[in-house]
Amino acid sequence: MDRILVSACLLGRPVRYNGSGKPLADPRLERWQAEGRLVPVCPELMGGLPVPRPAAEIAGGTGEDVLAGRAHVMTTTGEDVTAAFVAGARAALDLALRTGCRHALLVDRSPSCGSVQIYDGTFSARRIAGTGVTAALLVAHGIGVFGEADIDRLAEAVETEA
Predict the structure, then answer these.
(1) What are phi and psi of 8, to 5 degrees?
(2) Cα(61)–Cα(53) distance, integer angstroms
(3) Please, are residues 122 and 144 in contact by the beta-carbon 8 Å criterion?
(4) How many Cβ atoms sit within 10 Å of the Cβ of residue 23?
(5) What three-state secondary structure class fits 161?
(6) In angstroms, rounded to a whole number, what is the distance separating the alpha carbons of residues 121 and 118?
(7) What pLDDT is stored for residue 162 in this prediction?
(8) pTM given for the model
(9) Could you tell me the mean pLDDT of each successive run of 10 residues in the chain, 162 residues long?
(10) How many other C-beta atoms are found inside a 10 Å radius of the C-beta of residue 22?
(11) Contacts of 118 by beta carbon, 8 Å cutoff, 6+ apart
């Protein structure tokens, strides 16, 4: 049985920067959870950041650029939290590999988990195409990453492999 790494906030856990969850109401998610297929993760907490915490965005690129040392993750207060985001991404990858996750369902637009879009690093609510740090690391290691809007594609991938 394939296991799926999932952003804990999508399960309603209050782990987002502002102390909230972002529950995704979908019967497939509920079924996968009941089947024990979901492996909840919050890379930012795994990297040592607290809840709540200042909002953060990738400045100067995407998650791939952060992993390559070409960009940084900065908070609204000007703190460089790149090391925590990279550590969290590595911890999430380790968890995915240890638990046999071949897919991940991650919250989009996050500087950690964004899989289609992220914010542009200016804290102006402008979005750009790109991935967050964790999503980029998972993809680089062959794990299929899907945003919450792509749950249909994830379900198709999971059912095709079953």
Answers:
(1) -60, -30
(2) 22
(3) no
(4) 12
(5) helix
(6) 9
(7) 62
(8) 0.96
(9) 94 97 96 96 98 98 98 98 98 98 97 96 97 98 96 92 68
(10) 18
(11) 57, 58, 62, 63, 109, 110, 111, 127, 128, 130, 131, 132
